[in-house]
Amino acid sequence: MPEAPEVEAVLRALRPHIEGCTIRDACIVHPIAIKPQRATEFVRHVRGQTIQSISRRGKYLLLNLSRGLLVLHFKFDGQLILFDRQPSPGVHVDVLLHLDKTVLAFVDPRHFGRILWYPDIASARSLSKLGLDVFSPSFTVPALAKILRRTNRFIKSALLDQSLVAGIGNIYSSEALWQAKLNPRKRAGRLKIGEIRRLHSSVVAVLRRAVRCCSEPPPDFRNPGWWFADLDKILRVYQREGRPCRRCGSAIRRIELAGRSTYFCPRCQR
DNA sequence: CCTGCTACCTGATGGC
DNA sequence: TGCCATCAGGTAGCAG
């Protein structure tokens, strides 16, 4: 559940299940998920702690504990599942948090995701490097203009840089640029104010629509096979190489930018 | 400091 | 069917 809208949808749906619960015990099935931390330390730190609140920063999910916090990142495929007692067989569990009446499982067969404990938020280095959150009220046109002015990279690369703006990933960067009619290879620092205005409202609109799509139906943590349904229905360019642009009919192109697939319409994105 | 490249992992998919 | 190459919604760390 990679980008900010997916994490936001998870946060909203998960909150009633776990807020106020106490972590009775933790079980590290695959230590790689807490790397470079150590299982014994991890368990010692989280055992007995109450999950006071759940929050989000960029693509990170935060479980704020009575002492310290857990910082989760799902990378490509990481997932949360709730079980009544023990995980059902066949589910690739990395870490189990035994709560009062349920078991919260961090699941990631590819082992890219992480769940890390920190004594306080300032100790979480990855969080301190994050730029302005896309869902923050401070994410305004002037704020975006100021951020983009400092770099001359391709606008697509700048949007993906979490230290500039936090929460946009590979799908929604392509989507927002298509919506804003901006070529992904435009230089961030050379965008005109009108282009930045278009980009800003496109980012906001695309992400808001994504949150709605990811929340309806909400993630079903009780079903180990849950994933965001019908996401492709809201996508306008992503993974549409060769198919007609939904605005002008030209063939959508796929290029590599910053090592990532980038989709755009060569005719209406200038 | 800034930027681009690669490693990190496993599973799904498609061509031959 | 089997085998191999390619691709995947991300980030840290390192080299230039």
Q: What does this 3D model show about the protein?
A:
This protein is of the alpha+beta class and 270 residues long. 28% of the residues lie in helices and 21% in strands. The protein is built from seven helices and twelve strands. The protein has helices at 4-18, 39-46, 125-128, 141-149, 155-160, 170-179, 193-215; strands spanning 25-28, 51-57, 60-65, 69-73, 79-83, 93-98, 103-107, 114-118, 132-133, 165-166, 253-257, 260-264. Helix 1 packs parallel to helix 7 and helix 6 packs across helix 7 (193-215). The radius of gyration is 20 Å and the shape is globular. The relative contact order is 0.14. The model has no long low-confidence stretch (mean pLDDT 96). It binds a DNA duplex (16 and 16 nucleotides) through helix 6.
